[in-house]
Amino acid sequence: RMYLYGLVGVLLVLTAEARIGNSTDLDFCTETKECLLFDLICKTDKYEVRRYDTEKWVTTEETSLFMELASMRAFKRLFKYITGANEGGKKVEMTAPVLMEIQDVEKRFWEPSYYTMSFLLPTEHQKNPPEPTDSKVKIREIPGMTVYVQSYGGWMTSMSDKKEAKTLSLALDSVGAKYRKGFHYATGYNSPMTLFNRHNEVWYAVEDEPVCPSSLS
């Protein structure tokens, strides 16, 4: 039986406060002091529905034939920002997750894809973040959103991301869930130096009311 959780979602939106918080509030966010927190609306054996608040991020765009190359270039650019490539040369604490927007459009193999990578700004810099000195780096406010989420371990690669995104989209299609198509978010919670117990996620933005199969009556 299908249940819509719209009322719960509305109530969470109305009562939510700042949602950047202590990493100890999330079992899978273990490498930074602060993490992006969320309200869990519902959960199935295939995906979760989460509500995130509006927050400021530092972001950059990259084009490449390969996600791995785009990710490396974008990460390096953003890492320079948080280590002092900004007005005032301020050090900005690293947070999690790292968010990357990826296109889902079909293209010829020689056509590059567009990627947007973002680092969440910590609480200290949410109101007045230092301006980037690199013109390719921007401060961006990402509006609050409700997302369908599927988690997976191991390394995030172009192949693993495509596989997990496809699995999630098929699960959503099978229950008639409406979500924004044409792109998805790939999120990572670990340093590139972390070899084991990695945590990654695929997000699709919810359209209309979130759907979860449930045994609740």
From TrEMBL:
Annotated Pfam families: SOUL
MF GO annotations: heme binding
UniProt protein name: Heme-binding protein 1
Top-level lineage group: Eukaryota
Family per similarity comment: Belongs to the HEBP family.
Gene3D superfamilies assigned: Regulatory factor, effector binding domain (3.20.80.10)
Subcellular location field: Cytoplasm
Record's function text: May bind free porphyrinogens that may be present in the cell and thus facilitate removal of these potentially toxic compound. Binds with a high affinity to one molecule of heme or porphyrins. It binds metalloporphyrins, free porphyrins and N-methylprotoporphyrin with similar affinities.
Record's signal peptide: 1-18
Subunit structure: Monomer.
GO CC term, one of those recorded: cytoplasm
Keywords assigned: Cytoplasm, Signal
